[in-house]
Amino acid sequence: MKPLKKIAAHKNPKLNLENRMSIYVGPLSYHVRRYKRLALLFCTCGFLLIPSIYIYGKAPIVGAAGAGISAIVPLCFINYLSATYVSRIFIYLPPQRRYEPSLRKSFNPYTLHSSGDPYLTVETFDWLGGIEETTLRLSELKEIQNKGLQWVTWIRRGENNKDRKKFYVEKKILKQDVFSKGLLEWIEKQSGLEQIQGSSIDKK
Fold first, then answer.
1. DSSP codes joined into one string, 125-182
2. Which of 82, 88, 171, 175 would disulfide-bridge 123, Cβ 3.0–4.6 Å?
């Protein structure tokens, strides 16, 4: 029998993998990942063909450079469109309550963390199609209103511009579950309160 693979422990015990629960899965995650890898393969093949085109095909340097550009454009285009696409969202449960089904029946951040600001892990894809995880607090997410669109845009607020990041999630999928719907409404509420407070401060 093969030995069981140990789950890597996090520096913060509360953020261990066994304490997190999946609350969202992007419906296009599989296709987005395949398109990214297909574009990368197309780009690699294009760059490998450039020396052959220039040497054996006797094409001018401009033609060889054009072949390289045409190979990299699809990769840049696909990654530009899907860089902020969220494949999965996890939320961390209290270690002593992670097996309680009642936590899933409604969204209450104070039952997830004593401060009312639980941790989330948002999963996206990098240029190579690999998984890229961003762990943050619930209070760091702010929603941008997209009227008439089925996508919701969340922005991670940070002190530095490097910490700021956009996430695209599908509203219809979030509303299918009571817990994830509560998360969506909580972020909407917090974002709305901040906008009202900001406008009142500006008037003063």
1. E-TTS-EEEEEEEGGGEEEEP-TT-SEEEEEE--SSGGG-EEEEEEHHHHTTSHHHHH
2. 88
